[in-house]
Amino acid sequence: MVRERCHELARRARNELGLEGVTPDSKDFFRQMVTLRLPKEAPADLKERLYDEHRIEIPVFERGDDRFIRPSFQGTTTPADLERLRRRARCAALGRVRERVLEHVERLLGRSREHEALPERLSSTATVSAFVTRLQSNETSMPSAER
Fold first, then answer.
1. DSSP state, residue 39
2. DSSP of 53-101, one letter per residue?
3. pLDDT-derived band of residue 40, with 50, 70 and 90 as boundaries?
4. What is this structure's pTM?
5. Which of 4, 17, 18 is nearest to 73 (CA)?
6. CA distances in angstroms from 18 to 14, 79, 112, 117, listed in the order given
7. What are 88-119's pLDDT values in tens digits?
8. Distance (Å, rounded) from C-alpha 105 to C-alpha 51?
C-alpha cells in the first residue's frame, strides 16, 4: 500500500510538474523516484535555491548537455509535499526571471536612486508580474501599494 501511494506521487510529479519525463508513465520504468528533464533556462543553481530558500533537498544532475531533477517519494511524503515542491520549484525558477527583469529595467532606465530598491520590491510573483505588465505598457514606476 505504501509503495503504491509513493508510486502515485512519483507519477503525479512526472505528469504535473510541467517537466519532460524521461521514461514512460509505467511501473515498469519507475516506482518511487522519477527523473525529469529540466528546461535549458532553468537556473544553474536550482538545487541550491530549493535547499537554501525552501529546505527542499532534491538531486539535480547533468548528463551530456541536459540537466535533470530526480524527485523521490517515501512513506512519509504526502500530496501536500508534492504541491510544496511544485510551488517552490516555480519560485526558484522565478528567481532567474526576477534577475532578468532587474537587468532589463536597469538597461531601460539606467541605475537611479528611485530604482535601487527594486530588488526588494520585486520579491514576489505577483509583484514581478505587475511590474512586467507596467513595463510593457511603458509605466515604469511601482504603484504605491507595492512600494
1. P
2. HH-----EEEETTEEEE--B--TT--HHHHHHHHHHHHHHHHHHHHHHH
3. confident
4. 0.61
5. 4
6. 8, 16, 38, 33
7. 877 666 565 556 666 666 666 655 545 555 55
8. 28
- φ and ψ at residue 76, rounded to 5 degrees: -90, -5
Element containing residue 21 per DSSP (H, E): strand 20-21
Render pLDDT for 1-23 as a digit per residue (tens, 0 to 9). Answer: 899 999 999 999 999 888 889 99
Q: How many domains does the chain have?
A: 1
User: The domain spanning residue 128 has which CATH number?
Assistant: 3.90.1150.10
Kindly report the CA angle at 62 between 56 and 63, in degrees rounded to 5? 145
The C-alpha cell at 134 is 507596467
Q: Which three cell numbers stand for residue 30?
A: 519507475
User: Is residue 133 within 8 Å of residue 122, measured between CB atoms?
Assistant: no
Q: Which domain holds residue 90?
A: 2-146
Distance CA 30, CA 25 (A): 8
Residues 6+ apart with CB under 8 A from 77: 6, 9
C-alpha cell at 7: 508510486
pLDDT in tens, 73-90: 999 999 999 988 888 877
